[in-house]
Amino acid sequence: xxxxxxxxxxxxxxxxxxxxxxxxxxxxxxxxxxxxxxxxxxxxxxxxxxxxxxxxxxxxxxxxxxxxxxxxxxxxxxxxxxxxxxx
Length: 87
What we know:
Elements: H1 2-23, H2 25-30, E1 38-40, H3 54-58, E2 84-86
Parallel strand pairs: 1-2
């Protein structure tokens, strides 16, 4: 009984994921393929909302975002920058 229930859940999940990718096939084709570079931490960070540590400035920022709503692919109304570090 449990095996049948698990099989049904798996089938439903796979069918919904497949339908999602077919619903918007152009989204995958339009993506430019951004590469993210994550750098290792050299010193501990103080997570206080201020970016003062030198490690943040050595991390390569990603800034070329587009919005999804209200206009898909439009220029964002706010400037956004992401930098990734890991320990």
